[in-house]
């Protein structure tokens, strides 16, 4: 064996340092996700976060619409004045009542329509498209038409009621009647929209579950209650939350129903949205209007939080079972 064979091989040469293009590429790979989502957060900060914070700032001052630059510090006085106003509590009660009257029938009807559309019907595509027509209709046009239908003297609703012996109902002056009329507009506009959401949820339920239930002898009704409804629970929670938020922010329908920002002669169907508009653009109190906006925001947060908590507790109970 020669001496050269006993010599150890020379260690490999170290790799060259990364070039500048490689460093730039790695930096771009790390920063590119933030660059892609930056437009959304920029728009959200400009048109969502900033108005929210500025509204909270304005709610602590006395600001008039005629002189928005003259701001007088009031602290929480706008909120205390708000809670001592009877019309605020009236609008809050009206918002809750109209929300219940419009949301519950709306979602129940939407669920039934979605269940029918889930079957193989003729002209199924046309029917699904027709469901969106009320939602696509302008709220102004829809409300004006319904205001004519609910007219006291020449309205079609009172005419049909008279055929069955019911006297004319003053749909714009009566408290319960006016709230039912406004809720009817909301139900007509949003039932088809929620029906298509339920239909999409039904089509995501595995067909094997229905086949297994049918083999066990379950009728269509039992399949609906024991297969469809459990599978639709997350979708139902979503529609309840969205409908609740929409009911809290209800504005266009009660405003155009009679054309009054006070929601009727005795504020019988004035919602929180109308009350805020009346304070800000009717009485020119921008500070108090900002306080109302923040109260509405906190109400929405509380309602959504309660719905999320109930859904979470329901999910935990089912997981334990």
TrEMBL record:
Top-level taxon of origin: Bacteria
InterPro entries for the chain: ABC_transporter_permease, MetI-like, MetI-like_sf
Annotated region (Disordered), positions in chain: 1-24
ABC transmembrane type-1 domain sequence ranges: 92-307
SUPFAM superfamilies assigned: MetI-like
Record PROSITE patterns: ABC_TM1 (PS50928)
Subcellular location(s) of the protein: Cell membrane
One of the GO biological process terms: transmembrane transport
Gene Ontology CC terms, in alphabetical order: plasma membrane
Pfam families: BPD_transp_1
Ranges of biased composition (kind: Pro residues): 9-20
Membrane spanning residue stretches: 34-61, 96-117, 129-150, 291-312
Membrane topology of the entry: Multi-pass membrane protein
Cell membrane in keyword set: yes
Keywords: Cell membrane, Membrane, Transmembrane, Transmembrane helix, Transport
UniProt similarity note: Belongs to the binding-protein-dependent transport system permease family.
Protein's recorded name: ABC transporter permease
């Amino acid at each position: 064996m020669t001496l050269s064979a006993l010599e150890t091989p020379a260690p490999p040469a170290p790799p060259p340092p990364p070039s500048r293009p490689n460093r730039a590429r790695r930096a771009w790979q790390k920063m590119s996700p933030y660059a892609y989502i930056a437009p959304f957060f920029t728009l959200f900060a400009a048109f969502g976060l900033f108005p929210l914070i500025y509204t909270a700032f304005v709610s602590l001052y006395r600001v008039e619409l005629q002189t928005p630059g003259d701001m007088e510090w009031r602290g929480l006085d706008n909120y205390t004045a708000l809670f001592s106003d009877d019309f605020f509590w009236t609008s809050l009660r009206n918002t809750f009542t109209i929300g219940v009257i419009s949301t519950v029938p709306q979602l129940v009807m939407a669920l039934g329509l979605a269940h029918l559309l889930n079957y193989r019907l003729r002209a199924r595509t046309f029917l699904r498209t027709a469901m969106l027509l009320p939602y696509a209709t302008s709220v102004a046009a829809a409300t004006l038409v319904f205001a004519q239908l609910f007219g006291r003297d020449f309205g079609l609703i009172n005419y049909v009621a008279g055929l069955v012996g019911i006297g004319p109902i003053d749909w714009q002056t009566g408290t319960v009647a006016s709230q039912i009329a406004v809720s009817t507009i909301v139900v007509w506009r949003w039932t088809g929209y929620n029906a298509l959401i339920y239909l999409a949820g039904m089509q995501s339920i595995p067909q094997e579950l229905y086949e297994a239930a049918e083999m066990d002898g379950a009728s269509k009704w039992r399949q609906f209650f024991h297969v469809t409804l459990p599978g639709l629970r997350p979708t139902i929670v979503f529609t309840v939350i969205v409908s609740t938020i929409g009911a809290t922010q209800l504005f266009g329908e009660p405003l155009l129903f009679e054309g009054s920002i006070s929601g009727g002669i005795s504020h019988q169907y004035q919602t929180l949205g109308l009350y805020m508009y009346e304070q800000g653009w009717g009485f020119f109190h921008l500070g108090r209007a900002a306080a109302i906006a923040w109260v509405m925001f906190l109400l929405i947060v509380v309602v959504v939080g309660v719905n999320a908590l109930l859904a979470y507790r329901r999910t935990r109970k089912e997981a334990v079972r």
